[in-house]
Amino acid sequence: MSKLRGRVAVVTGASRGVGKGIALALGEAGATVYVTGRSDAGGTTEGLPGTVRETADAVTQRGGHGISVRCDHTADAEVEALFARVAQEQGRLDVLVNNVWGGYEQHDLARFVAPFWEQPLRHWSGMFEAGVRAHLVATRLAVPLMLPHRRGLIVHTTAWDRDKYLGNLFYDVAKAAVNRLAFGMARELEPHQVAVLALAPGFVGTERKSGRVLTVGQLATEYGFTDVDGQQWPPFPIET
């Protein structure tokens, strides 16, 4: 499959997890994918497995062209250097996936679900500086690479439960902010044929859904996607 041959994508926070999966899917479709994150051969985030180089290599193995870029998305200079490199090497950008998220670092499940007045303030910093703000900065730098071509897709990965409370005040407000970013950006970019959406979690390549919050379960049903084991998971949470 080479539907995205010749297209250029940036996937932030793609050393592992959802970001890595999105990067691999883009690679399977033939895209050139810049894989970013802080985890590299010199060390990984909190000792977790996976690096940007490993993801980039897997993108190439699957038929795309993976390019690893070590980037701390809380450091504006590093993010500016990333998009300057994309501009120099490719002269365009077709897809941006904002998946970077620092809100789970030093994660303690018991503390995570505690009342907000018992929450460590590092959660706020991780979710807003290494999450919401990181999405905004990357998008701000990506848009000028899309405007000349009057096309593009920007995806913010998010969490959403049909507007129900997510159980952690910091997390709930941060994800609501991410969703609102998609809402506002979609409206400002609509005249330029650039689509923006929030996806919980994953990727979709259609501008008809611009400005909406989507779930993987509903998209799997609509497009016939399955997991690697052949299962098609329902939207979260499972309704009874």
Provide structural commentary.
- This protein has 240 residues and is of the alpha/beta class.
- It has one domain (8-223): Rossmann fold, CATH 3.40.50.
- The chain has a seven-stranded parallel beta sheet with strand order 3-2-1-4-5-6-7, sandwiched between helices.
- The chain is built from seven helices and seven strands.
- α1 runs parallel beside α2 (52-61), α3 runs parallel beside α5 (122-146) and α5 packs parallel to α6.
- The protein has helices at residues 17-28, 52-61, 76-90, 109-112, 122-146, 169-189, 216-223, and strands at residues 8-11, 32-37, 65-70, 95-98, 152-157, 194-200, 213-215.
- 45% of the residues are buried.
List the helices and strands and how they pair.
Blueprint: E1 8-11, H1 17-28, E2 32-37, H2 52-61, E3 65-70, H3 76-90, E4 95-98, H4 109-112, H5 122-146, E5 152-157, H6 169-189, E6 194-200, E7 213-215, H7 216-223
Parallel strand pairs: 1-2, 1-4, 2-3, 4-5, 5-6, 6-7
Question: Quick gist of this model?
Answer:
By secondary structure, the chain is of the alpha/beta class. Helices cover 40% and strands 15% of the residues. It has a single domain (8-223), classed as NAD(P)-binding Rossmann-like Domain (Rossmann fold).
